[in-house]
Amino acid sequence: MTASLDYTVVIPTTGRETLRPLLDTLLGGEGPRPAEILVVDDRPGGSDLDVPGEVRVLRSGGRGPAAARNLGWRTAKSEWIAFVDDDVVLAHDWPRQLAGDLLSLPPDVAASQGRITVPLPADRRPADDERGTAGLEHARWITADMAYRRSALLEAGGFDERFPRAFREDSDLALRVAEAGHRIGQGTRLTTHPARRAGFFYSLKAQRGNADNALMRAKHGVLWRQRTGAGPGRLGRHALSTVAGLAALTLPLLRQRGKALLAAGVWAGLTAEFATRRILPGPRTPGEVARMAVTSVLIPPAACYHRLRGEIAARRPRPPVAVLFDRDDTLIVDVPYLNDPDGVRPVPGAVELVRGLRERGIPVGVVSNQSGVAKGLITREQLDAVNARVKELFGPFGTWQVCVHDDGDGCACRKPAPGMVFRAADELGVDPASCVLIGDTGADVDAALAAGARAVLVPTARTLEPEIARARRDAAVARDLSEALRLAGVAG
């Protein structure tokens, strides 16, 4: 039964010491072995990770767990992608439990969540950070142990990399998968998540998650908390406390001492209630009480600041999932009707930029008009040889679309028609609206917009002024390829 399970394990990591024991458990566990174990190193730099030789390591460059998981599942080719965090403890027979959960699922179930258990101290009440970890036992859709069909990830476009932390990115993905008509099942496999202690200001730093809450609201509406099973939150009280505190500080300057005292009383009452609510369930040691008292003063304004920052950021356009390039005068220097591979010369910096996108897990493709074939100026074999040289210099592209027709042929693929953009998106497994096309002519811009994609024009001396003016109005215009990627939201 279990031998037919086709799955890959993807583990994003920041180099925790718990990674190696986790890998040893997976490699020696009972049940079907994964097709591959992909560890995605999300540190900005550093030495090589200590992993067994059977494990493949990818690097995501410190862009957060959403980007790391995207790189992992896009690299994998199996039917199922099992996401596991690097700080969990798996049972020795976890592979067999996983197979039991996945192989019995009907086709409309796109994901299976493991059951998380968080052991708490038996000799004392749990501290604030330990109680926070314990909340994972009842959280929906967390990727500490979550398996998705790769087809569902392709349909949804993967994780939204605007979530830079291990917070809300899993709920966002699950909501989008459910909105696409799929179900998410609850598995029986058990995964242990240790409750580790954090620093004095851990709860203050956690307020950065309010920015992610703003993005959730922008994407999924005001009822996103109910839909994800998240608690009601305290942002309203935090805002009232912050306003009261500011009023208590500023009103005396306006000689309104009575109102200042009232504001101070409101602030003190809200702060005391917040601190008490956090202290009572805990161990109530002097150190814990001090930590709760100090952070209960600081958390409300920090939460408001991060929420405001998130509201502003949520209004920015989403970075594209895939980047498509025109070939001539975008990736390589244009030589009219180029038929000799030795004449291929990359645009300065283009090779490094494309490789950077690929290393970060962003799919790349080429969409190119090559009417020289229809005109009889080059042969298809010569075109293929030139394109092979481009691939040799730039590395592999996820899709390569070429139109060999001429203007008068009436085809649906030649830019400015959107055919090649549609086909490129289909081969990459993404929505055309999630693509950006970068090129040097108005035809590139028009093809992208006709397909519902975004466009960035990088003009050359041959680009017509009306094309530039139209691109400034309907798309974006960049001085070079590096700026084009920045405008597209995918700069490294």
Automatic annotation (TrEMBL):
GO terms for cellular component: cytoplasm. GO terms for biological process: carbohydrate metabolic process. Coiled coil: none annotated. Residues 8-114 form the Glycosyltransferase 2-like domain. One of its GO terms (molecular function) is phosphatase activity. Gene3D superfamilies: HAD superfamily/HAD-like (3.40.50.1000), Spore Coat Polysaccharide Biosynthesis Protein SpsA, Chain A (3.90.550.10). Keywords: Carbohydrate metabolism, Cytoplasm, Hydrolase, Metal-binding. It is found in: Cytoplasm. Belongs to the GmhB family. PANTHER family: D-GLYCERO-BETA-D-MANNO-HEPTOSE-1,7-BISPHOSPHATE 7-PHOSPHATASE (PTHR42891:SF1). NCBIfam families: HAD-SF-IIIA (TIGR01662), Histidinol-ppas (TIGR01656). This is D,D-heptose 1,7-bisphosphate phosphatase. It comes from Amycolatopsis vastitatis.
